[in-house]
């Protein structure tokens, strides 16, 4: 049928756009007014990166957190080509006791993003969870293909574990958090820690994680043209990330055959997100593998809607649920 609606069993199946939460749809429509087709349709990657950062800085899940946080940028390693691995450390101001720690991995399909792009979210988690938050500026594709991104995230995790005293953190309360590509890197980093015998991870929070290069699910075919991350975006990103390499369980965690031994896991994803079905399937496999797993699928939410529409009631509920889960997971010494 040529229309975006079809009749099934005598009832109407609404278009994807009609299924989006109205409060969350308005800011998306404004982005599409400014950038027809969405930022991910901009062909030049450098321009796309600039626009992506511009939009990220315009929005904030909670703009009133900066005064209560101490922030320090550090360089923790040098790569063979002379480039640096930079991190940003946020700590609640005036807190002297040992705190839990969150390794924060930004999203962007392995090709976008940096320390600034989700800094507001990292600061919010620092304040609301009362945790040290370490954000990493991992290398991006296509300049650096896999495994650079996983290598960088694991190097940062190892650095955190080696500097618990300097950072003022409790090594038994270490979590890894990331959204989209950062969600996939969260799972990959935690799997590498499992396979390498550490550092020990208390909790992982993978937000609408990008984990399956095959793009074979129903939702990966369904979400194609709403103006945010969709099938074309994912296909391009996976091609640039893998750069012709065969995927493995670190580059594409959905391919992992062994999910045992992973820490308690939290996954959330929107109903109108192309990653919906691969994330639901992965959560189910974690449960079958004996991994305590909490899964949330939010009706009306699209990819990163809580970042694009932070004022929406749905976005506030998404953040509240995440923060509650992090507080609970990191509140008890192990």
CATH homologous superfamily assignment: Alpha/Beta hydrolase fold, catalytic domain
Instruction: Report the sheet-strand fraction.
Output: 15-25%
- Main sheet attributes: strand count, strand direction, barrel closure: 8 strands, mixed
Q: Average the pLDDT over all residues and give the rounded result.
A: 93
Helix and strand element order: EEHHHEEEHEHHEHEHHEHEHH
Radius of gyration (CA) equals 19 Å
Look at the structure and give the CATH class.
Alpha Beta
Proper CATH architecture:
3-Layer(aba) Sandwich
Indicate the percent of residues in helices. 25-40%
Distance between the termini: 57 Å
Tally of contiguous helical segments:
12
Q: How is the secondary structure organized here?
A:
Layout (H helix, E strand, L loop, with lengths): L5 E3 L2 E3 L2 H4 L2 H13 L10 H14 L10 E10 L5 E9 L6 E7 L13 H11 L2 E6 L10 H15 L1 H4 L1 E11 L1 H16 L6 E5 L10 H5 L8 H12 L22 E8 L3 H13 L4 E10 L2 H4 L4 H18 L4
Parallel strand pairs: 5-6, 5-7, 7-8, 8-9, 9-10
Antiparallel strand pairs: 1-2, 3-4, 4-6
Helix pairs in contact: 5-7
